[in-house]
Amino acid sequence: MASSKFEEVRDKVKEFPTQSGVYLMKGPADKIIYIGKAKNLRNRVRSYFTDSKDHSPKTRLLVSHILEVEYILTKTEVEAFLLEASLIKKHRPKYNIRLRDDKSYPYIRFSWGDDFPRLYLARKVKKDGSLYFGPYTSGFAVQGTIKFLNRTFKIRDCTDPMFKTRTRPCMTYQIGRCTAPCVKYVTQDEYRGEVEGAKLFLKGQNRKVLKTMKEKMMGAAEEEKFEVAARLRDSIEAIKSILQKQAVINDTTEKDQDAVGFFGDERGCLIETVHVRAGRVIGTRPHYLPHFDPNDPTEDAREWMVDFLNQYYEDNFIPDDVLLPVDIGSDLSKLMEEVLKERSDNKVAVRFATDERGRNLVEMANENAKAHFLKYVSKSEEKMRGLEEIKEKLSLPEIPRRIECYDISTFQGAETVASQVVFEEGVPAKEHYRRYKIRTVEGINDFASMYEVLSRRFKHTEYEDPQLIVIDGGKGQLSQAMKILEEIGRKDIPVVGLAKARTESDFQKAEVESTDERFFLPGRQNPVIFKNNAEALYILSGIRDEAHRFAITYHRKLREGTSLESELDYVVGLGEKRKKVLLTQYNSIDEIRMAEPADIAKLKGFNRVLAERIILQLNDSEEEEIEAE
Q: How far lies 493's CA from each of 60, 221, 499, 509, 518, in Å?
C-alpha cells in the first residue's frame, strides 16, 4: 500500500465505532479481500495498521493491498460471528481461510414434520422440520441404508406428488413392504408408530428398536402369523449385521459428537472432523487449506480454529459435542457455543478434549488428518507439475492457477444456456461456477452467445482473472473467442481451443502421436498434444467435460416438471433402447435413484460404469444452484 493511502485508511479507522460488528477490507477494483468480526471494531481493525513484528507474513501481505475498510454493525458478538460466516461464503475473500470440499457429503433426511414421513438423500441441512442424520462418506451407502430402512419399517418410498394422487396401492404394498398410507389403508398415528423404529435406529437407540421388534415377533408367532414373524426375524438379523460393521466408541451415550484434528507444514494444513453418532463412528471429513502453515508461530491457533468452526458449522449438521485439539479459552468456547446454539436451536458444548475418551477421539482425528494430508500434498504436487507442463507446452506467461472454460448448450430447440467452470490449482472450484441464460440471442448462434457470456463475465471485476481460457472447439472457435476478447478489451488473457482429431493428417501434424485431444493456439498452424497419461491432459480435458456436464444439468433444472423420459435424456451414454429397458424395469425416477448399481448393470445392454453414471447424474440435480447476473 502506498504510504499516503496507508495513512489515509489508518486515520479513517481511528473513527470507527467501538461496538461489535463485521469489517470488510477491500483492494483494487473495490474487491473484498478479507472479512473479519470483532467485539470492538475500532481496536480490532487498528491492530492491522500497527508496526507490530508479530504480524504473520500473510497479514503483512493483506495490509499492503488494503485500499478501503468498511464495516457493518451488529447488536451482539454472536451476530457478528453469524454474519461473518455468511459473508465469507458469499464473497470468498482471498485472504480468509476458505473451506473448499472436493465433494458434498450426503445426509439422510427424515421428513418427520410430514403427516406421513419418508426418507431422502440430502446434500444440505435445512431448517424444514425434518430430522437429519450424517454426514456420511458415501452416497451409495446412504441409498443402501434408506433402502434397508424402507423395507424393514415399511416406509413409503413414493414421491410426494405420486403419494397425493394415488387411487390404489402400488406394487410395494402388494409385496408387503409398505402399508399404503396413500390410500388410507393405515392412519397417520399407525403409520408413524410403524416408522418410529427407523428414527430410533438412526438415533442409535438400537437396543430399544431390537427389543420392540422382538416383542412384535413373539406376538406374531403366538397369533400364528408366521410369515409376519419370519419377516421380523429377518429384519432383526439385518439390523444386527448393520450394527456389527460400525466402530463402537461408546455404546452408553446417545450424544452426537464431532472431534477435530489437524496436521500440516509449510505446504498447507489439513483439518479433519471425525463424526460420532450415538457412540458410533460413521465417517470422517477432510478439509485441505493450501498455503497455510499451522505451525507458524505468528499464526494464532485459537483464531484460525474458531474461524474454521464458524465456517464449517454454517451449513453442516451441528452435534451435541465438539471436541477440539487446542484450547481456545473459556471465552471463545462460550461464544462458539452461543453461535452454534443460535444455528441449531440446541445446546452445544465446544471444548478442549481433556477426558480420556475425548482425547482418543481427537487423536483419531489427528491421525486421519496426517494420512489425508500426505495424500492431498502428493495430489497437489502432481497437479502443480501438470500446470507447469501446461505453461510450458502452451507458452503461457505464468502458471495457470486459475483456468476457466465455457460451454454453450442448446437442447432440442430449447433456450440457449451457457456454463462457466473454474479450476483452481488444477481442481474444480465449484464456488466459482456460474450459469448464464442467454438473453440477447434468438435461435442458435454460438458466436453471439459466447460474446454475451464473456462480456457479462468480465464485467465482474470482483472475480479473479484467469491465466487461461479453454474453448471447446478447433481453430474456428478459437479465432471467434480471440475476436470477442479483443472487442471487450481482454485480449491479454491466453486462450486455447480443445478439439478431438478427425483425420489422419491431424495425427501426422501433431508433435507426438499419443492422444486424440488436440490443442490449438493463436498464430500456430499445428496443434499441441499431451501424452495419454499426462496430468496436464487430465486437467484440460477434465475442465472441458465438466463445463459440458454443468451446462446440461442447467437445462434439466430449467425444464420444471420434466417427465422421467426427459430426465434420462441428460445421462451421457444412455440411448433410446437402454432408456426403454429402464422404463420397463422401474416405475419412477426415485426407484432408479435408489437402485443398486449392480442391479442396473445386470439389465440387457448395461454395465457397471453406466449404471453408476446414471445414479450419480440423477442425484446431481440437488447441487450447484449458482446463476450469474
A: 29, 76, 20, 26, 20
